[in-house]
């Protein structure tokens, strides 16, 4: 069902778990890691970066996305997200909105700390999305 | 199916359309209005407020929510959202995330400029939401 | 030096302290209140409203601003900000950016829980601001 | 006056101008680039990444910061910011707030498209900053 092989999924999981290590989260103490795979097979890691003004926080998923975009990538296959617990962490609505800009077919893996996971597709996590096609100015 | 009567829905629609008038949207020129009904029947209107730094923008829905919260309301029944076009405008992911903090059963009306509408429930617009129950610090 | 009389300053302080009561801040447990005075003498109160996704948080100052804008106000004289401590709380950079959209001469009162305060002007808190005049699209 | 040599400043300027090329800014059509130098001499490039929901936009400066943080860097010397015009573009308040988390002595270069520039220090761009030391929970 996934466009990724099992080995590619396992690699993405490994990299999302590793990405937690650089999390800057002194306020929530909730470390999150993400790993984003581009259509051409490159992987970008991201972690959450918080701020004393809570609204300034940037999630792990968006960190991975801006890294990739700033190096010339605009098309993505899949992202894995993990934290330090077994709770199938899913992207927040802010990140879903951010991801939606780059395509609705993105596969998303909610990864437990023990590597078990659930799989979803962005279109199902943000139905009736408000996207680029809704903005007359584009 | 809705917890609101037809008259209450029509009133919410009227107020969301009226709320567009105070939209501050010089950058997108995309006026949005929202009207939020609390469980005890009070209605708060909101519009989008943009900023030269685009990331500073606050949507109409969140404007309505913070108005209500800052006056002591934490439980809501429904929100209507409208713009200047017939495009069934739906809340962005940022707003869905913001709303989710206050309950998953919120009814959401996507309102066209001609008053026709679609109805949805927040739980269906943000499945597998990352919410208060996911934060260990709470 | 202030455009406000002492009585007007005291009233703004009182309302900013009162506004803390509706703060929704289960994550930081840091209650903030704000009171914003329009040029025509109306006062809007705001509190911080947080979210499980920390980046979704909206500060007390921005709450007060969107309330006022959504009711037709675009010109402001002064804002007072307070928390539960004696620490001369000042607006975060996000809020300074948001305020800057509506004029650089805004007076800002950093209010202690014991009502003592410092006064500043937005232009001094956000020098070389990036504002509407910097955006070619406006 | 700068902790950087003239050659290092010129390199940072070059990289900030180059970083504009991957800007994703279909809404503002305002391309911004940034280059951030860590204390140990590594440079991270960032561009602005916008969203159909304007509030989802992430500026070039924050892109550069989260890239660096997600690769283990927490201490920085300087950042250069540029756009396509000669207007001494300065970081918005959101970015100043984000930067402040990592130290007040950061040098900031406002770079014109023709490579001329102004220099500032973060402490002067965000006086009375609300920072980590103001949050009791840290
Ligand atoms: Zn997120
Ligand atoms: Zn929204
Ligand atoms: Zn703030
Ligand atoms: Zn910025």
Automatic annotation (TrEMBL), chains A, B, C, D:
<comment type="similarity">
    <text>Belongs to the cytidine and deoxycytidylate deaminase family.</text>
</comment>
<keyword id="KW-0862">Zinc</keyword>
<feature type="domain" description="CMP/dCMP-type deaminase">
    <location>
        <begin position="7"/>
        <end position="133"/>
    </location>
</feature>
<dbReference type="InterPro" id="IPR002125">
    <property type="entry name" value="CMP_dCMP_dom"/>
</dbReference>
<dbReference type="InterPro" id="IPR006262">
    <property type="entry name" value="Cyt_deam_tetra"/>
</dbReference>
<dbReference type="GO" id="GO:0004126">
    <property type="term" value="F:cytidine deaminase activity"/>
</dbReference>
<protein>
    <recommendedName>
        <fullName>Cytidine deaminase</fullName>
        <ecNumber>3.5.4.5</ecNumber>
    </recommendedName>
</protein>
<dbReference type="GO" id="GO:0008270">
    <property type="term" value="F:zinc ion binding"/>
</dbReference>
<feature type="binding site">
    <location>
        <position position="59"/>
    </location>
    <ligand>
        <name>Zn(2+)</name>
    </ligand>
</feature>
<dbReference type="GO" id="GO:0005829">
    <property type="term" value="C:cytosol"/>
</dbReference>
<feature type="binding site">
    <location>
        <position position="92"/>
    </location>
    <ligand>
        <name>Zn(2+)</name>
    </ligand>
</feature>
<comment type="function">
    <text>This enzyme scavenges exogenous and endogenous cytidine and 2'-deoxycytidine for UMP synthesis.</text>
</comment>
<dbReference type="Pfam" id="PF00383">
    <property type="entry name" value="dCMP_cyt_deam_1"/>
</dbReference>
<dbReference type="GO" id="GO:0055086">
    <property type="term" value="P:nucleobase-containing small molecule metabolic process"/>
</dbReference>
<feature type="binding site">
    <location>
        <position position="95"/>
    </location>
    <ligand>
        <name>Zn(2+)</name>
    </ligand>
</feature>
<keyword id="KW-0479">Metal-binding</keyword>
<feature type="binding site">
    <location>
        <begin position="48"/>
        <end position="54"/>
    </location>
    <ligand>
        <name>substrate</name>
    </ligand>
</feature>
<keyword id="KW-0378">Hydrolase</keyword>
<dbReference type="InterPro" id="IPR050202">
    <property type="entry name" value="Cyt/Deoxycyt_deaminase"/>
</dbReference>
<feature type="active site" description="Proton donor">
    <location>
        <position position="61"/>
    </location>
</feature>
<dbReference type="InterPro" id="IPR016193">
    <property type="entry name" value="Cytidine_deaminase-like"/>
</dbReference>
<dbReference type="GO" id="GO:0072527">
    <property type="term" value="P:pyrimidine-containing compound metabolic process"/>
</dbReference>
């Amino acid at each position: 069902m996934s466009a990724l092989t099992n080995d590619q999924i396992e690699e993405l999981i490994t990299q999302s778990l590793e990405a937690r290590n650089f999390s800057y989260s002194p306020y929530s103490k909730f470390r999150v890691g993400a790993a984003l795979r581009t259509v051409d097979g490159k992987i970008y890691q991201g972690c959450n970066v918080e701020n004393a003004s809570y609204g300034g926080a940037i999630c792990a998923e968006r960190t991975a996305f801006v890294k990739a975009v700033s190096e010339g990538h605009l098309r993505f296959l899949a992202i894995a997200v993990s934290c330090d617990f077994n709770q199938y962490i899913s992207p927040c609505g802010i990140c879903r909105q951010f991801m939606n800009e780059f395509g609705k077919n993105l596969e998303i893996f909610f990864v437990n700390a023990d590597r078990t996971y659930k799989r979803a597709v962005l279109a199902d996590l943000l139905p009736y999305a408000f996207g680029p096609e809704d903005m007359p100015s584009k």
